Amino acid sequence: MDKRTFHVELEGITLRGEVYIPESKPAPALCLCHGIPRGGPPDTSDPGYPALAERFCQAGFLTAFFNFRGAGDSEGNFDIAGWTRDLVAVLDYLYNMSQVDRGKISLMGFSAGAAVSVYVTSHDSRVSSLIACACPAHFDFATDHDSAKSAIAQFRGIGIIKDQGFPPSVAHWMDGINRVKPIEQIEKVSPRPLLIIHGTQDDVVDLTSARALYERAGEPKEIMVIEGAGHRLRVEQQAMDGALNWLTTRVLLAFED
């Protein structure tokens, strides 16, 4: 396994990430997409995305993760519409790697990262399969101008909106959120395989979102409901075991055949 850092530049900002490359190449690729950071001190007991990327790489997937604009080591300010463009830029990077089988590029997103992954998959034919974990059917933090202003203040407080002048237009920022709404995009994932994973004890995105998305999605689709699991499915072993088994069956074994 070879681990590398990478960066991509777009719209005057730099996004930073890591990619884990298996020994067997070319390999199917997987891009992990994080959700909105919670803020506060980091959880020192959480091995984070590096551990997850390493696990999927050991299973044979070239696995990448990165920070969306506004988060982690990446530049810029939080903007859901901007996150969709970030993911397309990272897809460009993966697509052009010589170690990647271009016909097997999967996304696995978590929460808002899942919503962005649904949107990008629905518009980008390079994505061959999608796993949406704890995905909202829609966003409820910007239903009107006042709630959007409140959300912007909250995101500024946790450090993912850094510039005082951002966003220049609250209405435009809200429009971007409405464009990405997963319940209006999920149908276009088909005919690519889709797996929806959700926990019964998710206190951030209710299980009804998963059921609504599954109902709206086209085939082939599967839903995996994890009894007792909360919102952070990345740290739920049953959820990640299920994701890896699904990817192995849907992507890796087909690749080897």
| Assembly category | single chain
In CATH terms, the superfamily is: Alpha/Beta hydrolase fold, catalytic domain
The helix/strand order is: EEEHEHEHEHHEHEH
CATH architecture: 3-Layer(aba) Sandwich
- Give the amount of beta strand, in percent: 15-25%
Q: Specify the structural class.
A: alpha/beta
SS summary, helix count: 7
The total number of structural domains is 1
CATH class: Alpha Beta
Average pLDDT for all residues: 95
What name does the CATH topology carry?
Answer: Rossmann fold
How many beta strands in the DSSP annotation?
Answer: 8
The major beta sheet can be summarized as:
8 strands, mixed
Low-confidence stretches: none
- Report helical residue fraction: 25-40%
User: What is the end-to-end distance?
Assistant: 22 Å
Rg over C-alpha atoms, rounded to the nearest angstrom: 17 Å
> Within the largest sheet, what's the order of strands?
1-2-4-3-5-6-7-8
Q: How does the overall form come out from the CA principal axes?
A: globular
